[in-house]
Amino acid sequence: MPLYEHVFLARQDLSQAQVDALATQATEIVEGNEGKVTKTETWGLKNLAYKIDRNRKAHFVLLNIEGPGSVVAELERQNRINEDIIRWITISVEEHEGGPSAMMRKNERERKRRGGEG
Predict the structure, then answer these.
(1) pLDDT (tens digit, 9 = 90+) per residue, 60-104?
(2) Helix 69-81 and helix 16-32: axis angle, to 10°?
(3) With contact defined as beta carbons under 8 Å apart, do 37 and 30 qualify?
């Protein structure tokens, strides 16, 4: 079964609950097309390098997906329709990373660094 990493950026003015609902909706799309989401990570609200549709920040969400290519096609079709998602990327990977992603490890290091200085 092919493996994919799917990252989408949601508008900055959404609440965390709305972002979680978008992740749940994406998971339902994948599972409805004979795929499986093995991991979901919400990376939080981050600054963008440049404005996208008048957004200077965006909520980042990662989904690790197992499934046929038709799953990705349907997920990206739904992303195009959804006005709350401003960008997305899906890449095919040989294997999913075990444990937290590099972004989550970076966030944890920054939290420890800030906590240790205070």
Answers:
(1) 999 999 999 999 999 999 999 999 999 999 999 999 888 888 888
(2) 140
(3) yes
Q: 84: which 2 tokens? A: 């709350």
Nearest to 78 by CA among 69, 68, 88: 88
Strands in 55-66's sheet, in edge-to-edge order, are 36-52, 55-66, 3-11, 85-93
Q: Which residue carries 């709305």 as its tokens?
A: 18
Give the residues across from 47 on adjacent strands: 57
Position 19, amino acid: V
Residue 86, amino acid:
I
Domains of the chain, first to last = 3-117 (3.30.70.60)
Report pTM.
0.86
Structure tokens at 86: 């401003």
Under 8 Å between Cβ of 5 and 90: yes
CB 12 within 8 A of CB 52: no
